């Protein structure tokens, strides 16, 4: 079962430059995502795990936390130290934290 982190723990890690992977679909990502989040739709995770670092935590986020748990589980089986972000992008935005729009990845 995927390990989860709270929004507060994620916010602290994000502020320190954490690796963030958004596993939603392209249109969801474009509508609003955590600054610096890398788009990797859930269906592509099994074939793209090799793109992720193995020596540091990876924080996985989706809309509400369901897809991110699945993705983190898959990443963990590939040797990635992955954590699902509880509440997802929805909780992040509701807390008043920064969200960017557009289809390109943005630096934090």
From TrEMBL:
PROSITE patterns: RHODANESE_3 (PS50206). Pfam families: Rhodanese. Residues 16-101 form the Rhodanese domain. InterPro entries: GlpE_sulfurtransferase, Rhodanese-like_dom, Rhodanese-like_dom_sf. PANTHER family: FAD-DEPENDENT OXIDOREDUCTASE, PYRIDINE NUCLEOTIDE-DISULPHIDE OXIDOREDUCTASE. This is Rhodanese-like domain-containing protein. It comes from Streptomyces aquilus.
């Amino acid at each position: 079962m995927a390990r989860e982190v709270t929004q507060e723990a994620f916010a602290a890690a994000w502020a320190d430059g954490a690796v963030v992977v958004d596993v939603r679909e392209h249109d969801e990502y474009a509508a609003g995502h955590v600054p610096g989040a890398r788009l990797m739709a859930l269906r592509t995770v099994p074939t793209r795990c090799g793109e992720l670092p193995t020596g540091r935590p990876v924080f996985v986020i989706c809309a509400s936390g369901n897809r991110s748990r699945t993705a983190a589980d898959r990443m963990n089986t590939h040797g990635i130290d992955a954590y699902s972000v509880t509440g997802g992008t929805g909780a992040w935005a509701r807390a008043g934290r920064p969200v960017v729009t557009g289809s390109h990845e943005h630096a934090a």
